[in-house]
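SEVERITY: medium
COMPONENT: batch folding queue
REPORTER: lab tech (J.R.)

DESCRIPTION
The queue accepted two submissions in a row. Attaching both inputs and their returned structure tokens so the on-call engineer can compare them side by side.

ATTACHMENT 1
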Amino acid sequence: MTYCLGIMTQEGLVMASDSRTNAGFDDLNIARKMHTFSQPGDRAFVVLSSGSLSLSQSVVNLARARFGSGEGLARVPSMYDAARELGDCVRQVADLDRAALERDNYSFNVHLLLGGQVRGEGPALYMIYPQGNPISATEESPFLQLGEYKYGRPLLDRGVVFGSTTLMVAAKYALLSFDATMRSNGAIGPPIELLLYTRNSLSLDCYRKFNQGDPELQNIHARWEQSLRRAVEDLPDIHFPIAPLEETPQALLI
């Protein structure tokens, strides 16, 4: 199980991922799902991956080989082209592995989040599907998620606003979204990787890894729970009618 999250704000991007992989609750391992590609001053990319670990590793290794040879992500002129480049890597891996996987009743399952910036345009955030096609985050929908997203989404829907949420506040929303997910699904867990990208910096130098039992993460968890309970207790009381509810006899409903 996986949870990856990208948030786009006016100030930049927040990218976050858990590091737990599993083939059932009794087979848990740790593997990084955050991968970075950068040429400081010219381009900076962060890729988050979910799905089959072997497939995502193959896609990232292919993208990294192209990048290292000065091709692919090293040369694309825009973030959209970067998303299409990753999509091409996904399709190339699909050409190699999809038939064998599906012959044994395994689906070709790999999803990617791409965040970053190419010099000359603004930051952007994309999701790449197993078919290789991308969609982008927008000012109206400024975050994208992969994996076990349902528990951490309501908080983001209520709180994150592209034009007014600062990068640091977005980072707090990201950690709280992970906190809600980990609380409800034991297959999601630390280490949590968190990277903040500041608009026009064209470098990846604001990174944090939260291991199991990290004091700062535990403090945020405890203070959030206290604040949430206090906020609920401070809500106006619910008023009920004085007259008791009269139930209609079942015989009259037939």
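ATTACHMENT 2
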Amino acid sequence: MTYIPLSLLLSLSFLLYTLQKKNVSFNIRTLVGLAGGVGLGILAHVCSNNPMPLKSSMVLQLADLMGSVYLHLLQMIVIPLIFTSMIDAIMKMGDTCGTFLRRLLAGSVSMLLGLTAVSAAIGLTVGQWFNLGAGLQLPEAAMSPKHQYDGIGAAIKDMLPSNPFASMADGNTVAIVIFALLLGIAGFYAYQKNKEEVLPFKQFIHAFFLVIKQLATMVISLTPYGVLAMITTMTATHGLETFYGLLSYVAAMYVAMAILLALHFSVLLFFKVNPIEYFKKAFVALLVAFSSRSSFATLTVSEETLKERLGLRQSVASFVPSIGATLGMNACAGIFPAILVVMAMTIQHQEITWQIVLMVMFVNAIASLGVSGIPGTAFVAAGVAFTLLGLPFSVILLVQAVDPIIDMGRTAMNVNGALTTAVVLDKKLQ
């Protein structure tokens, strides 16, 4: 009977492969992986007579191997993706010309990053309200992060890339973020002074980013298999507590996003914009974002909403949503990583101090530069914070099982942050 779960794991994996070949949507395949993992985990638990054979059963060994492979691939893409996307995004700003557009660029970046930092604080607060992670456990192998958090002083020193290549080898993501930021700024000014000479470097970075982006797409496409494996392992080992914990996580995310929406409305109210009238006019764009789960797919509707419905200038209506789709996504880079930090630290029985709150707010805002608009944006942003604090990446994989439910609200809040920024800057830059 102990071979039945193993046969089912292989059959479910083949089913996911078949669904992929038939172009069944990624969301459905991920939910199939979730449902299959819960059912298979319960069956594996029932088929085991005591904890010892449960740990050594072939199905759990295979599931653990599948989950570990996916985790390593997920970690593999974080550093090259962050490095190339940040430099590419900053150097693209060199194409912006004109005094008004430069002021608009500075205002957009400042406000979007500021809102992202505040969003991270909201995520940390709501995560603690819900006591996310309490009662959850992860496999022992996942509880041994490569880096340990040794306080804010050590974290700041680790953030300074004294040797960028060593930082890459050590997996010090935050140091790479800082290095990419400085290199991007240097490339920005070098391109302004010597366009012909620096153009090959700019083109190389953009081409490199496109290749890494494709690699990320390939890795993210394996998510249903990773979800199946991880949920199988955790349900078989810890029962349905893991599933109940995911339901609390979904509730916490939507509560945090509701608070973020209230924050956006408060900002509009401060600049004498009626939030109710704004929402009526922006509703269609938010609905498209919610249903499409893509900020880029919503760009046309966002521009039309800002120009035709809200009466903004063409330059603002076109420029700000485009910037908002490439950096400073409030929910993906702000709330989401922060809530996962709370969950992971609670699982590991670590205290969340005010120093950690400030570090997460800063790192999430900086990490949002350039990571938006790429596959798995939210998970890459979370990976930066997890690397800084020495937290297990398996927590990020765990919540991917219900990510389609979360991503609809996240995308709507990302777009709403960009629309709010556009409305405010149109009034400020008269």
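NOTES FROM REPORTER
The CA atoms of residues 150 and 389 lie 8 Å apart.
No errors were logged for either attachment.
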